[in-house]
Design a protein that fits this description.
alpha+beta, globular, 28% helix, TIF_eIF_4E, five-stranded antiparallel sheet, RNA Cap, Translation Initiation Factor Eif4e, 5 helices, RNA-binding
């Protein structure tokens, strides 16, 4: 997904770069596309350098891995009743390693309640990166606690409350109004 001022059609700001249905195909994509290292695509805030890929007129804002047929948008039918668990991380951390751990946890289906995880995404927020885990549920305390604990451990966060939650229905309603 690239960063553009045109918000009239969210989906036209995205491009699918591949799909897979088994570990071998996933690894071919992962090993041969530079998206495995977020800093390759995103703005380098330490150098104040904006990276714009060939063929685009704006920088990439986010990279995601989602289930087939699920659009990384709040209003997607699979996402709308759910939420995303997210945390903000300093750009000076080893984002490649943290992003790989997040994606491999998704692919390996080792997040809590993996059948309800729709995808993961990393966003460039200047001097911060935001990692999100999108799920199809919201306001389920037991699941929420397990997911927050898992993400905090996975991303080596000091505190579980560093993982926040955003309900998609609330975001969608707020933006629509």
């Amino acid at each position: 997904m690239w960063n553009t001022k045109d918000t009239s059609n969210y989906e036209k700001n995205m491009q699918k770069v591949g799909e897979f249905s088994d570990l071998w195909t996933f690894w071919q994509h992962w090993a041969n596309l530079p998206h495995s290292d977020p800093k390759f695509f995103f703005t380098d805030s330490s150098k104040n350098e904006e990276k714009i890929p060939t063929g685009l007129n704006c920088p990439i804002e986010a990279i995601g891995v989602f289930k087939d047929g699920v659009v990384p948008a709040w209003e997607d039918k699979a996402n709308k009743p759910g939420c995303d668990f997210y945390t903000r991380l300093s750009a000076d951390q080893d984002m490649k390693s943290l992003w790989q751990k997040t994606v491999f946890t998704l692919i390996g289906e080792t997040f809590p309640f993996p059948e309800e995880v729709n995808g993961v995404r990393i966003l460039d927020r200047g001097k911060l990166f935001k990692i999100e885990v999108w799920v199809s549920y919201y306001d389920q305390p037991e699941k929420t606690t397990q997911m927050k604990e898992n993400i905090a451990k996975l991303l080596e966060l000091q505190r579980m409350d560093s993982v926040e939650i955003a309900a998609h229905e609330e975001k969608f309603t707020r933006i629509k109004n």
